[in-house]
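Slide 14.
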Amino acid sequence: MQAKVKLGVKPLVILLWTVICIAALVWIFPHSTKADVNQGTREIRDWTSHITPLMDVQFHPESALGNAGCFVDLSYKDAGLALIKAEGDQPLRVKITQGDRSETFFVHADGTPSVLPLPFGSGDYEIKILEQKEGQVYTARYQTEFSVWSMNDLQAFCNATDYVPFSQDSEYVKEASRLREQASSDEELVRLIVKSVMKHLEYDKSMASVGDRPDLDLVWSSGRAVCRDYAVITAAMLRSQGIPTKVLYGNVTFPGEEKGYHAWNEYYAGEAGWIRLDVTYMEKGAGLGYNNGFKTLYEASKVF
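Slide 15: predicted structure.
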């Protein structure tokens, strides 16, 4: 004679609750991915700000404005670029102004087109081509005004320019493309590119004499750099992969140090906005741009 086993209400409730918990775990874990980012974990995400970078743009003389050997091509203004072609016996500069904001750029004086950013987004602009007369005295040879109202304000920081040069043939761009294949997210790509730059370059003060427009092919092949080179080559690699990146110059004060002129980056991370990235000083604890617990005063005076 077999004994009948009768389950009470309580065991059934426990069994049902266990099944529900297991089902919830099975659903949650495939849908939650975490990545290690320096100080803890962050959710892996892909930013939706990808922009196709413009490289190797061409000067269009048929649509250029100007006279007396000074010309401005605005064919790419909606993409955040202005091309300048000028000739002169003295050094030339270009001043780009919007309202009370302006940036001044060195340009070629031998007729070679210079590719410059329109760094202030949509709005009314003025461009002046200036020629050196004596010392720091410059006079205007040509100026023009124009408006840009359909620019993607991020595009200007994703293009190749004279100040952030790159092309598909650049070795550092090939490296960035290779890292893109390895990265599972944009955030991981930033980490991989920064680590690659740090591994490939070594700080060398003698490179400071190169000027504001470094030869990045030389920098990459020599493996020697100053803060300007770290910032510009990082920007070129990130821009080439569609991540808008600024190069900023200005004064920086680190804890226990005097104020000094410096170059660093900001990259655009979707909803998180612009995130500072200082590759040169990462070994001092700045982290991958998040500045966790790193009290530093950055005062930008130029943005390229």
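Speaker note: Helices lie at 9-31, 171-182, 186-200, 216-222, 227-240.
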